[in-house]
Amino acid sequence: MRGRKVQNICHPGVVESQEGNMVLVRIESRSSCGNCQAKSYCGMVESEGRIIEVKSGRSEDFSPGQQVDIMLDTSLGYRALFLGYILPFLIMVSGLFLMHLISGDEALSALTAILLIVPYYYLLYRNRGSLRERFRFYIKPGSKSS
Amino acid sequence: MNELFNEITLFSVVSLGAIGGVAAIILFMVAQKFRVIEDPRIDIVEGLLPGANCGGCGLAGCRALAEAIVKDESLEGFNCPPGGSDVMQQIAEAMGWEAGEQTPMVAVLRCNGTREFAPPKVQYDSAMTCTFAHSLFSGEGGCPFGCLGCGDCVRACDFDAMYMDPESGLPVILDEKCVACGACVKACPRDIIEMRKKGKKNRRIFVSCINREKGGVARKNCKVACIGCGRCVKECRFEAITMENNLAYIDYNKCTLCRKCAPVCPTNAIHELNFPVRKKKPADTDKQEKNV
Amino acid sequence: MEYIIIIIGAVFVNNIVLAQFLGICPYLGVSAKVPTSVGMSGAVMFVMTLATLVTFLIFNYILVPLNIEYLQTISYILVVASLVQMVEIILKKVSPALYQALGIFLPLIVTNCAILGVTILAVREDYGFNLLEAVVFAIGNALGFALTIIIFAGIREHLDLVDVPKGMRGAPAALVVAGILALAFMGFANLV
Amino acid sequence: MKVLTVSGSPHFHADHSVSRIMYGVVFSLIPAMLVSFYFFGLAAILVTLTAVVSCMAFEFLIQKYLIRGPMTIFDGSAIITGVLLAFNVPANLPLGIVVIGAAVAIGMGKMTFGGLGKNPFNPALVGRVFLMISFPVQMTTYPEPSAFSTRLADAVTGPTPLTFLKGGVDQGEKVSELMPQIPDYANMMLGNMGGSVGEVSALAIILGGLYMLARRIISWHIPVSYLGTAAILSAIFWMVNPEVYPDPLFHLMAGGLMLGAIYMATDYATSPMSKTGMIIFGIGCGLLTVIIRLFGAYPEGVAFSILIMNAFVPLINRGFKPKRFGEEIKNG
Amino acid sequence: MVLTLIIVAAAASFTLATVYNLTKEPIERSREAARQEAIGMVLPAFDRLVSKKLMPPSGSDSLEFNLAFDNGNLIGVAVSTYTGMGYSGVIRAMVGLTPDGEIIDVVHLEHAETPGLGDKIEKGKSDWSDQFRGFDPSEQALRVRQDGGDIDAITAATITARAYCDAIERAYLTFEANKQEIINKEEE
Amino acid sequence: MGQLQNFSKGFIRENPVLVLLLGLCPALGVTTSAFNGLGMGLATTFVLVSSNIVVSLIKNLIPAKVRIPSFIVVIASFVTITQLVMEAYLPALFDSLGLFIPLIVVNCLVMGRAEAFASKNDTFSAIIDGLGMGLGFAFALTLLGGLREILGAGEFFGLSLFPGDGMLVFVLAPGAFIGLGYLVALNNIVKKKLDKTA
Amino acid sequence: MHQLKTFVIGGVHPPEKKLAEKQPIVRLDPPKTVSILLSQHLGAPAVPVVAKGDKVLAGQIIARGESFISANIHSSVSGTVAKVDGVPDTSGYRKQAIIINVEGDEWAEGVDRDEAFVRDCQMSPEEIVSRVKDCGVVGLGGATFPSHVKLKVPKGKKAEYLIINGVECEPCLTADHRLMLEKGNEIMAGISIQMKALGVGRAIIGIENNKPDAINNLSEIAREYEGIEVQPLKVKYPQGAEKQLIKAVVGREVPSGKLPIEVGCVVHNVGTAFAVYEAVQKNKPLVERVVTVSGDSVRKPSNFMVRIGTPVSELIEAAGGLPEDTSKVVNGGPMMGKALNDISVPVTKGTSGILAFPGSESRRPAEQNCIRCARCLTVCPMGLEPYLLSALAEKQRFEDCEMERIMDCMECGSCLYICPSGKPLLDYIRVGKNRVGIMIRERSH
Ligand SMILES: Cc1cc2nc3c(=O)[nH]c(=O)nc-3n(C[C@H](O)[C@H](O)[C@H](O)COP(=O)(O)O)c2cc1C
Ligand SMILES: Cc1cc2nc3c(=O)[nH]c(=O)nc-3n(C[C@H](O)[C@H](O)[C@H](O)COP(=O)(O)O)c2cc1C
Ligand SMILES: Cc1cc2nc3c(=O)[nH]c(=O)nc-3n(C[C@H](O)[C@H](O)[C@H](O)COP(=O)(O)O)c2cc1C
Ligand SMILES: Cc1cc2nc3c(=O)[nH]c(=O)nc-3n(C[C@H](O)[C@H](O)[C@H](O)CO)c2cc1C
Ligand code: SF4
Ligand code: SF4
Ligand code: SF4
Ligand code: SF4
Ligand code: FES
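Above: the input record for the complex with iron/sulfur cluster. Below: its predicted structure, written as tokens.
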């Protein structure tokens, strides 16, 4: 009954396929220069977008080709941001400064800093299951406005 | 010679080759993982579309339509109202398909409750939005079906195809600009605007009223309301007119534009657009001319 | 202290967008939503730092010793472009869920202009930065970028609601806002 | 019985209107205006008049020919912008520059965004900062105050207390040695010091502020938090080293702090909506003002800090919402 | 695929190396020309130039001293000096000194001061820097008037003016500190 | 679309700066004077045309998957060549354009034309396209540079127009944004007028 | 001085204009015909149980509320059913109504029309509730929510306080005020009946300080009742709104989107208490109510006891008719009432007042740009940001409206009252609420 209190981020996409209670949705990375011929090549971001898997109890309501909106809690978005970028950033920088403090060697500390994110990513990899559980998406039929 | 090709050349070639190699491997992997399988035809189709992103096709923008068309490999069921059949024809040519014949449509206003015919009984003094006015009261003229005149439809039109006539208090649709995107239809809280076939030579006949009240009641608020007398239904030989809830409706697919029905309507609720002037004027054609 | 001065300098005095004119495209283009601009900022922070580390190494340990500094542009662009992609790929492999969430959160990842600009500036002679200073410089610039785009996303949300006159809507208003913002930021002149 | 009017509820409306509020502000500015006329004479009157007239003229022209909107020049907001712009420039500023300032304030600061209430930045300050940066020489040459002055542009010029002190401290001189050379606090309070047209008299400005508070045109939150923060921060520095950093009282009365805190930080369109937001805004302005004054290149930081905080207003509005009914369940 | 890119990169770098080698000379030459021009502007005609680096009494970098000889006589020294006190960024200037330490002329080499304000130190933009001609730092104070010196500041750009004085003074002080050595040079 | 149209569209209707809003960083960064704007515009045009030529020549030799990185390398090479040649023969301009020359490499305009046009068309069309777009870019930059120079310094291409200094703000960062903002608005109006007459 | 209790966030103080304050309630005779709408209450319309031509008596049931939230409707007069047809309601749309031609004034059997006061009630709580339901009692405070529903405490919840709403915070209206003066005993008895039904030990009557006579009168009577007390309140609109009243009286805040029972309170209007008394002690269905006729255009501001279904025009006649310059007639209070486009509409159970204003007072101020003065947000008693909600709704950004809690708005009108730029804030907020409501409903099924 009650309105959602959480804030959502919305992103339009197109249903790619639908199996079981899983809907695969392709979202476009809408780059800044929307009307540029270079489109997605600019900035060298992949162009065709990504496939998002959405679990939905009403997956049969969605058919391939349909325009939908994918939604995600803003707070989850921030969490993803933290795990994806901020935390490795912090690890990298603190590794850099620590190593520099210890060894005083620039090349060594730089390499350490860069390599430190490898174990971080490994940890992420080990936890991918629980992350999958946590990052849930909602789906709804698309609207023109968004 | 040494001037041009020295160890700098060597270092350059080697190091950049190495960097390039590493980059290549990474980018190669990228290409593998995120292969671009986008059909180049989508771009072509998109290029042909007008780019108004109006949503008239029912999809989220021109690109979406282009994708859908290419995906279906056919134009069946797709329609770009702003572009019209011209664009569809072009796409068909570009793709080497047959273009499906499109019926050009246009928006019509099914209310003639001008200040003259449905004089205002009260004065509205709130936000100029039909949606709110509709929720507040039946309207200045008292007709609970008629146009409220706050112009939600006009604001919804992206193509400058509508304007509010200050005289009549009704919106006016400019046929030549209307691309049948349907935005106004959605905007009107009273469903007054209908998308109809443009018709031969732009000619259209329709009942310009959607009042479903009983005749007397409807007539009390508006002189040109459809009173549900049924004369037009009897007059039409093509069974194009139906009567439901005291309201006549002309089916544009059946109507042959024979013009028989209009003169018999006692309230002049039936509109003829873009016809030549009748030779023998029935009682009050002057009113009809206003509507053209 | 040194580091703090570098950061204050990069964030306020020589703001990357408002004074150095780098990363204008994302400034104008990134969606007018505050959360998105925060996301963008985080991604830029990570990538900018990483790129600075890598290019610093390449510059000081390959290009300088071999006397081929002139290959800076071409090698940097290759490095920056592939780094950005690599982060993406790794993230996708490592945690698809995370990757997907970020895909919804961020409309675009990183624009190279700002990254490339900062990596080139970080090894500029007259700054004479050592590695740590270069990294702090990169972080400062990322923060400066974050500050401006988040402020601007806020203003944009406001402008979206108030019906800016037709001719000024969109980019023109955004640029004028940037201009006034740059005017205001001149107040920080000579702060460090 | 005439035709009935149908409108949504409520059917009562409070006795406010935009122009009443705006003219209230204009009225409250009169004391400061009189003080400026007293000390800077005809020049101040001319500058004020020019600014007001050109602000109204530019608003008229832009509404009429560019935006084609309704006539708004008599709602009083352009008058305020004009007066405050004039109050923020030296009395001997060439009138041509005043007109440019008015054009920028109204054209760029206000009408670019659609006019009253839509602008994210304070128009008068946009005008002032634009002039400050475009015409640094003219904008930093201040006439000396003199009672019933009738002189025009060629008045004796002198530094404002802020420039004087900053210049001195930058040269390594001590605050205690510099202080005796500037007007004493009583004179500063009354406005007998060098400075922009309307900023000199703290007393007159406070008077106007009290009037606006009494009429509930503004609330206390922004001025108090702004002045309070500035006072506290400058007091901390002063306690650390009184020879380099002047005392808080000096900061409060010198320069445009009072004018800024009471008239310009409170501008509705460019300040936060909620009470907490206003306090955050005031604190931000206070911090920035003191930092710029003490460490920046400019002796005065009020205009810059308010403009910078203006930029944060949408974020503040987003982050500090009014307390909602039923938010925390307090049962007892 | 990888190979293609390596080849492309190699081909590109090969071309670049060639262009680099081709332009190396002209770049050197244009740099040298700029230096010569600056020296020429601050010194009278000379026939021989000897360069040497000297550390200033204060400052992190050494200064380049160009001793100019005419007929074997030291006729002046062109000092490439710098200051970090500018409004934005480092200011570099070439200062010409007579063997007595009097300033012949000053010309800026590089600065990032505000156009319209600080850039008045450029000779083409204003004649402000002409006041250094014939200035004798041993008798007059190389400081702006506001600071009790004998140099008129640039209106509204005191900082730049102050910085410029600092740069010149650095050159002068270094010159004074190493005067002996420089004079000795003459004797070599 | 005729070649002429291909060439001319870059000036108003599809002006890369004023309409497509591409490459704004250099557009803002270097336009302190009309001359700098023109210089930057021409440098970009050179890179654009040369890389368009090379791309259209080698388009068939490059496998699709490494197309983008190869194009990057090609573009970066031309940028470096520009850099070197400029430093050698136009040292003053080189100094004032500074960082923005290497940044041509990330100018979406260059990459965009290479990818969207040159890689699909013959060499001649690619040259025309590059020239059109590049000169449109140069046009916008010169316009903005001129505007800023006139308002900010009272000069145009170094020629003094009126005595005095002008409004300093226009040579500084804020002036760049403000000038471009109103130019874009103006161009919108002009474009609308053109569309109406068309 | 001791600060009077009131609610904390927001609120305005419109001119009170209680013109009919001193006018005793006058009972009006039944008119010639009445039109009794089938939907006079919140919830589903009642279903008619009579047909054209039927003879009916006053107090006889003529339509039955069949769904869970609905209410019975009784004839307010005796006579013949002329037809069951659409008649324009207050907004001009036709709604089904039973139209009765009045013949005499005979009452149905079982209705006790004796005025004598009966204090004690012997019924069990269940019996009370079912009697209230049978008699078609609905909330008379404005929302016309069926009272029997509110008298049943939902499972798992517990009511601690019955709060009686005698605030009458709307300007002009004096119906509750007069009722409290003239029917104090009956109201008190009604309250104790309601307390019994709800099983609560305490009832608090909240009355604003501008009605000292009512406060005195009820305090006097309350001494004879255990657990009932009178709480004087500071004058502030919209104190009468349920959540604000609870906050003012017991200091609890009903969470967003929740009902008062969440914090152990049930709120009833004094008129409802009186109606409950009449239903339970006198078996008299809700067929008449007190209506204030007032406003600057009314010649004789009065309080009338009228039969439901009487045309508004008759009330106005009884109050001396309307002067020529009248240009707005409002059904309800000036802050929440509905402007009528036709004065022939019938009185319903929810009609608390009929106000008429001259032209000078009935026009809205001209609309200007929002100057972001924050007045609307300062006065919003729900702590919302009306300027934002309205702008979002105008831009059709309904999802954002929902996020900004548009559904918390109770349409009190404080924001639109205070706005200096004459922004039609509430109009757009209503559009937004409407659409968000649809969105929420679509989502939940
Ligand atoms: C945008 C801007 C740029 C400035 N650039 C310089 C500059 O390059 N050099 C300088 O000395 N002062 C510059 N100033 C002025 C200083 O901030 C400061 O006001 C001045 O140097 C103080 O000197 P005065 O004693 O002449 O007023 C600039 C001011 C502004 C607003
Ligand atoms: C803004 C607003 C003002 C209200 N003012 C009053 C009032 O003055 N008196 C009153 O009895 N009810 C008022 N109500 C209605 C009450 O909220 C509540 O519905 C009523 O007291 C419940 O009692 P009832 O069910 O017996 O009507 C108001 C409601 C709103 C939303
Ligand atoms: C869907 C709905 C269900 C309600 N259920 C109950 C209920 O179970 N118990 C109760 O005491 N009141 C209930 N109410 C009544 C409200 O609390 C409130 O008294 C009524 O809406 C009138 O209040 P107002 O005049 O302030 O708007 C309900 C109201 C609605 C709309
Ligand atoms: C309390 C108050 C303070 C104001 N302060 C300013 C001001 O500092 N500068 C200004 O241009 N306008 C000011 N105005 C006028 C008006 O609000 C301003 O022009 C708006 O920013 C225009 O949208 C003020 C108005 C009020 C009510
Ligand atoms: S009139 Fe209606 S259908 Fe026609 S273009 Fe306008 S909005 Fe679309
Ligand atoms: S047609 Fe509909 S939307 Fe248009 S003005 Fe009339 S009521 Fe409003
Ligand atoms: S009260 Fe009116 S003018 Fe003030 S903020 Fe609210 S909507 Fe805007
Ligand atoms: S009408 Fe709604 S938004 Fe306005 S003050 Fe009342 S509760 Fe708040
Ligand atoms: S040119 Fe696009 S971000 Fe710099």
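Notes for the reader.
Residues 265 and 306 of chain D are 6 Å apart (CA to CA).
The pocket of FE2/S2 (inorganic) cluster (ligand 9) is lined by residues C 22-25, 111, 113; F 23-25, 107-108 (CB under 6 Å).
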